[in-house]
């Protein structure tokens, strides 16, 4: 299994590559993972989200256990919404409460599929070959906005705020998702612990079926949906999501009055 990460260097350059033994072995990009020959000590770099997707496709009702609890039928096609690129932050960056919203903010620990090759109308085998690797996602939601208007569920608004898609800390390739669990803790207390083998659609099936609806680009992420144990985060509280083989993604919901996150000047550039 290999671990890939994305960093900001001391000269404000975004670097991407394979991490081994405390060093980053730089590669050109996720789309073109060709070694540049540069080796950089990780301690001198600032971690970023491991990819910068043009879009995040977030699934709903993709686990049998949650479907059973909600008394919802298992879907025949992935049910999804789109989270904008501006919602993406990396590990240890603060989640910012939207202005003028004082309601509940929910966490959802999820597996993320990272696309490595442009994918459109792909077979399951072609879809599997287009997957670069896997990461961790916290799909954050302003829960009370979802049904604020009784005539139109506002999935994209409730889940699309800046900082509402935490991704990281790394991308793992050759990851055996079938044997892994998603474990979410809130202030150190376990809230979620569910097997990824309970997914309705496998990662390759998700990529294949979604690619029939839209083109998936390198760096795009599919958040595979969550299972039992979703809850709300109080201001100042930290949520940590662990998937063995990938790492732990931790983010804190900023307390009122915290200044907005300071994004790196080039952090929105795709690498």
UniProtKB/TrEMBL annotation:
Gene3D superfamilies: Fumarylacetoacetase-like, C-terminal domain. Keywords: Hydrolase, Metal-binding. GO terms for molecular function: hydrolase activity. Pfam families: FAA_hydrolase. Residues 55-253 form the Fumarylacetoacetase-like C-terminal domain. Transmembrane segments: none annotated. It comes from the Bacteria. This is Fumarylacetoacetate hydrolase family protein.
